[in-house]
Amino acid sequence: MIFETREEWESKSPISPLLAEKGVRHYPFIRVSLNCIIFHVDFIRKNEECCERYMFSSVSDVLKVLGQNDFDKISISLQSRRCDNEDNEYGVSTIKEIIKAKDKNHKTVYMFRCKNDKTYLESHASADIEELTDKKVIYIKQDDSYICSEYELNAMKTI
Fold first, then answer.
1. Spatial contact of 70 and 146, defined as CB atoms under 8 Å apart
2. Cα Rg, the chain, nearest whole Å
3. Which single residue of 59, 81, 118, 145 has CA 20 to 30 Å from 38?
4. 43 near 67, Cβ under 8 Å?
């Protein structure tokens, strides 16, 4: 999935140039091209105090960023799709665990256990949670800290 923007959507606000760094552009909205999970990631880099916030369209990209191992604090939240919830509404919840597994076609999929006690699978997964095999926890959120499998993160850097 890709976040889409168009040149004509760029902010015309007089404040935008004052806030922008060189090469940075501001858009008041983006288009989400596919109906899939979105990840909201907040982190504080080592030796810094301010929080940076990003949105990702894939957990693989989130794991690549985590692989930089340059953070004191990190929080990953999952924005679910409407069809993932009984009330047909979007939901946002902090991810407590990311589990890497294999589906029935032996393809890698990720499962997310969230603070709201719900468990989600990647949007493209071709299996139910009960059908997954070779499950391995690769991320655990603990208070303001996190634990990641170094092996998994190093492997993600090369993808």
1. no
2. 17
3. 145
4. no
Is 66 exposed, middle or buried, given 0-12, 13-18 or 19+ CB atoms closer than 10 A? buried
For residue 31, the model assigns a pLDDT of: 81
Pairwise CA distance, residues 19 & 28, whole Å? 14
Residues comprising the chain, all counted: 159
Dihedral-angle region of residue 111 (phi above 0 means left; psi in -120 to 50 means alpha; beta otherwise): beta
Q: Is the separation of the CB atoms in 77 and 113 below 8 Å?
A: no
pLDDT band at 144 (very low <50, low <70, confident <90, very high): low
Is pLDDT at 18 greater than 70 in this prediction?
no
Distance CA 72, CA 154 (A): 18
What would the pLDDT profile of 88-116 be if each residue is shown by its tens digit? 999 999 999 999 999 888 889 999 999 99
Residue 110, exposed/middle/buried by CB under 10 A (0-12, 13-18, 19+)? buried
Q: Cβ neighbours of residue 129 under 8 Å, at least 6 residues apart?
A: 111, 119, 121
The answer to whether the beta carbons of residues 75 and 39 sit under 8 Å apart is no
